[in-house]
Amino acid sequence: MLGSSRPASVLLTTVLLALVGALLPASYAGAAVGTATVRGTVLATGGAPLAGVKIDLYERSGPDATWVSVATTSTDVDGDYVLSDVEPGTYRVGFDDLTGTYVDEYWSNWGTIEESDDLEVSAGESVENVSAVLAPPYVPIGIRGAITGSVGGLRSTDRVKVTAYQLADGAWAPSDFIWTSFDGTYRLNLKAGTYRIGFTEEKAQLVPEFWDDAATVELASDIAVEEDTVSPGHDAVLTPVAPVAPPAQTPVAPPAQTPVVAPAAPASPPLALTNETKPTISGKAVVGKRLRVARGDWVAATRVSFTYQWLADGRRIKHATGVRLKVTKDLVGKRLKVRVTARTADATVVVTTARTPKVAA
């Protein structure tokens, strides 16, 4: 055939392969150059598929290593989603119900992106079952409504007891309470009725008050809680307790010819961010196990953010920047620790944990 010695079947096969390659969709072409695919399903508690849930793929970015969304998609009517053309790397995944019917979460089953698990993606890989089950906001059986709000003026270690009062026999009596979370917010689940609420800091270092800016429960404002509703915006800002003035002292006449003493250097201002209890590592340093770091206790005048870096024999472990670490074979014989960096708007403090025993196989 025009001077070729190849059989007709070989030529036909060559032509067919060329045609198939030309017709392959772009997604297959992407996989060929080293990208990956991430798949999963989002269900409601009880197993019903959730459509329209926003899926975000996050990657660390910038000098502060902030988690930034680098890809997004939504679930279909079956609750399924696909993220294509994902570059190799370390990611975290968020699930956001835009209707507000279900509580958002991060993979796998965490409330914040800082706590969530790393998703390692390799070139050409298809990562399956990156899934979530979303639950509705928690309302206990027999509880019909809620009061929500936040408390300002707190340090990172402060906790405030939020107490609900109801009128009983002509007097306001405590009926329920809850402690504020780390960021000062609270949600107090209550039966339908009329309440007043008070705010008390557990160390008695802040002046207690009642909503809305009242000194006593008798002067506080009523809050009506209705069935199946949330009454938001019941906030407070607590102020420090005024220091007790020292007793007045009778002035003493200075002795004659008192030598002049140079004034003492002014005291340094208190740090805007301090660590009271060092971070610690929990878990067994054994291959296949997971270790976790607790960030310790901190005192700050403003909100604190934290980043983490795991170290092996003092050397940085690549991509090990979460609160958990899965111990791998390459760490055998090494001692691990974590460098915890705390930041506020005007201060940065770095603290390192104690070392673990040598990693065992």
UniProtKB/TrEMBL annotation:
Pfam families: CarboxypepD_reg. GO terms for biological process: carbohydrate metabolic process. It comes from the Bacteria. InterPro entries: Carb-bd-like_fold, Ig-like_fold. Keywords: Signal. It catalyses: Endohydrolysis of (1->4)-alpha-D-glucosidic linkages in polysaccharides containing three or more (1->4)-alpha-linked D-glucose units. Its EC number is 3.2.1.1. GO terms for molecular function: alpha-amylase activity; carbohydrate binding. Residues 1-31 form the signal peptide. This is alpha-amylase. It comes from Nocardioides cavernae. The lineage of its organism: Bacteria, Bacillati, Actinomycetota, Actinomycetes, Propionibacteriales.
